[in-house]
Amino acid sequence: MSPIISVSNLSKTYGSGFKALNNINLEINKGEIFALLGPNGAGKTTLISIICGIANPSQGKIAVAGHDIVSDYRAARSMIGLVPQELHTDAFESVWATVSFSRGLFGKPKNPAHIEKVLKDLSLWDKKDNKIVTLSGGMKRRVMIAKALSHEPQILFLDEPTAGVDVELRKGMWEVVRALQASGVTIILTTHYIEEAEEMADRIGVINKGEIILIENKTTLMQKLGRKQLTLQLQGRLDCVPPALAAYSLELSSDGRAVTYDYDTKGERTGITSLLSDLRNAGVRISDLDTRQSSLEDIFVSLVRAP
Ligand SMILES: Nc1ncnc2c1ncn2[C@@H]1O[C@H](COP(=O)(O)OP(=O)(O)OP(=O)(O)O)[C@@H](O)[C@H]1O
């Protein structure tokens, strides 16, 4: 499958001399939901802004459906809808007027049937004559999405779509995003909510300090989530793991009083039974044990933790 967005060797140094992006390579597949995760200041908004033509790249190339974002800016930009982090729209305009106006900004001819469809899809049709100021926060967010979809883009960027939104509304927003995907739109979202990425994304990218440090299918990541860790507290102290136990790749704690064993809960055999008997045979006595499951959050935190 050919990518709908292709980012190669992208770097961005701001006027201040700060390097916000360092040699980013990323391909987004047509029709997928891609979640970009990263801590504050990692470069997510900078990356989105460059792809959307709001900021200039310092180095590298980006193509959107084959259109270079610099030399073929208009064609590239017309493929993209952007829902920015901050909600800003004219409070005293009606929903209909503000969404229709957004379409006009892209030089597209009027198409009331399309605007009607977008408003209906986003459950905003009965609010079409309401002034934005009278809407709830959740509705205002949906108006921002409607604006971004007004010019019939094939790609939608959602920068923190559910920041500060309550759980109920967040779930409603997920449904909206899924429906958009089903209608053929490719979606790239940034989020701080790991749960949101877990729930929504086909693929997950992690960005930290301007570099992409992981890109993975969500299902592959979920398989990693299937891994568990068994910690065994020892009655005595070990200086090193006995050679007879090498096959288990045990990790010895720094005080020598505990070993941890990683195992796969989805595997046919966890290896725990044989580990326990091999430990006994090696003369290692256990005083306590506990298990814990790694979450996407653990993976994320360990990836972005400063060295
Ligand atoms: N115009 C600018 N001039 C100089 N530095 C900037 C500019 N815009 C952003 N930066 C810096 O670039 C880095 C990346 O910022 P960016 O907004 O892309 O991060 P982010 O991942 O979107 O963060 P957040 O999750 O907080 O929105 C930050 O250190 C920020 O201070």
From TrEMBL:
Pfam families: ABC_tran. PROSITE patterns: ABC_TRANSPORTER_1, ABC_TRANSPORTER_2. Residues 5-234 form the ABC transporter domain. It comes from the Bacteria. InterPro entries: AAA+_ATPase, ABC_transporter-like_ATP-bd, ABC_transporter-like_CS, ABC_transporter_ATP-binding, P-loop_NTPase. Keywords: ATP-binding, Nucleotide-binding, Transport. The keyword Cell cycle does not apply. GO terms for molecular function: ATP binding. Gene3D superfamilies: P-loop containing nucleotide triphosphate hydrolases. Involved in beta-(1-->2)glucan export. Transmembrane domains (TMD) form a pore in the inner membrane and the ATP-binding domain (NBD) is responsible for energy generation. Belongs to the ABC transporter superfamily. This is ABC transporter ATP-binding protein.
